Amino acid sequence: MIANCEATLTFDNATLFRDFPNRPLNANKKLVLGIAIPSGYEHTGTLTVSAWRPDTTLGVINTRGETVVEANIGIYPYADTPASRNGSEWCVNFADKWLFNYGEGNLLAQDELQIAEHPVSSCLRHAMANSPIKPLTRDPQNDDAPRPLLVKGILRHVHLDTTTGLYGNAFAYAPAEDVIAACTSLKPPTVSNIIAMDAPSGGYGIYAEHTLLDIWNTALTAFYGAVCESRTDNGSGGECTVHTGWWGTGAYGGNRTLMAIMQVIAARAAGVTRLVFHTVDAAGAADFTNACAHPGLDAFINAETLDPRDFLRYCAAQNFRWGVSNGT
Length: 328
What we know:
Leucine Aminopeptidase, subunit E, domain 1, alpha/beta, 11 helices, two-stranded antiparallel ribbon, single chain
């Protein structure tokens, strides 16, 4: 078994909003919340959270099942599709150790944008503090080992367009009229499935082997959990699509090439049917193309069986170096 499900909990949306309200501190976040959840809105439905732990992440894996890898210039589309509604389409949340932790503050990076568009996520974070599954994507009792959280069936109430300059630190101080103009209320709300996984941060120089192992364990465990959830909902032959992007390479300063190829190979090893890598812009698309063409990587992309130890030795031999934080 590549990974194990520690526990699964189901939460009622109406209870979450009533008992664990979303209370943004930033005025612009309040504006977005008011558009997403207007006064008198009647909440319905439930969401499910599962916590996953690595198990045999270094065993030889049969990778004969083909994973289609696509590059998409842009950000997540969050299309309301049968795949999203039946738990077979997932979007990666570039999480902090604390799940959905900064959504009520000033910043609007990838994590916080996802929270703003799925406002029950902040309520969920508060509720999980008193639940058997704590809102932690790492295990503090096991040297902060990876512990990805999968949130299935969460409602997206608003689309917030950040392409006009509202992304990052600029959001907090943008004119209210710009924020309002950037918001589109979704009626009815659409359904999303989110993979919350925390990348390593704060490194410098050449990546240490233990950090490479942490990245591998995190991505493989998270993607395997999504595959398992998809098969639970849709049968053993159920497909699983994962949308991801530059995980851990913004505020955390991770190496773009490394973080891209780690996710591509982890998706293959986990049995993901389709990996869509959202590159944001044309420069990002070029970076992703170059990452997938990195010398020697094709041996792992095309292998019928994968020995993760060989792959990690390959990554270590490339002497990938940490970048720097982009400040968001």
